[in-house]
């Protein structure tokens, strides 16, 4: 399994609403993530500046990204979420995230 | 298992050296982490601003923190690492980290 860390920037005035939506992610969105290999997936929020940190494990990152890119529900979900993010331009959040460098790992 | 996300701020002029030290963490430091319940532990670096994100899983966060606080090797390691961090004051990195809010989880 590859361990993936990524970072995105939320609009700090919209954090409560973002969190609320993530307590009730659409079941077909969850199913699509599972199907395309997004495992043990957590999102962590730093409310002090709106930094969002994602962590997941996947057998193949490129396949996981390509898989979600081909899911219709993902396109709807990312359009729904786009207003919450800064600095994405025309990209979906899962296209625009900054992949982080894994500098340490202990099993 | 509790999933823990945390964040720290590295001095951007010292990133290469920080990364290098983390390719050769002392064996007794690794053993202490394992012994005190730090599992599946990754550190991720955002080189654009020196943000460091940590992720680990533990049966009991308070026990994991207290366990490391009582390990002599941890005191030595944290003293060694202290110059790499900003905004810690007199705290060790594992005392000064910002615990992040887990806003989403998918198994």
Automatic annotation (TrEMBL), chains A, B:
Any one Pfam family match given in the protein's UniProt record, by short name: rhaM
GO molecular function annotation: racemase and epimerase activity, acting on carbohydrates and derivatives
Signal peptide feature range: none
GO biological process: rhamnose catabolic process
InterPro entries registered for this protein in UniProt: Dimeric_a/b-barrel (IPR011008), Rham/fucose_mutarotase (IPR008000)
Listed PANTHER family: L-RHAMNOSE MUTAROTASE
Record protein name field: Unannotated protein
């Amino acid at each position: 399994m590859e361990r993936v860390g990524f970072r995105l920037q939320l609009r700090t005035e919209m954090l409560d609403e973002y969190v609320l939506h993530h307590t009730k992610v659409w079941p077909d969105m969850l199913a699509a993530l599972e199907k395309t290999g997004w495992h043990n997936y957590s999102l962590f929020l730093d409310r002090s500046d709106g930094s969002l940190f994602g962590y997941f494990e996947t057998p193949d990152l490129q396949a996981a990204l390509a898989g979600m890119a081909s899911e219709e529900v993902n396109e709807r979900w990312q359009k729904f979420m786009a207003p919450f993010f800064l600095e994405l331009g025309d990209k979906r959040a899962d296209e625009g995230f900054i992949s982080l460098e894994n500098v340490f790992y202990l099993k």
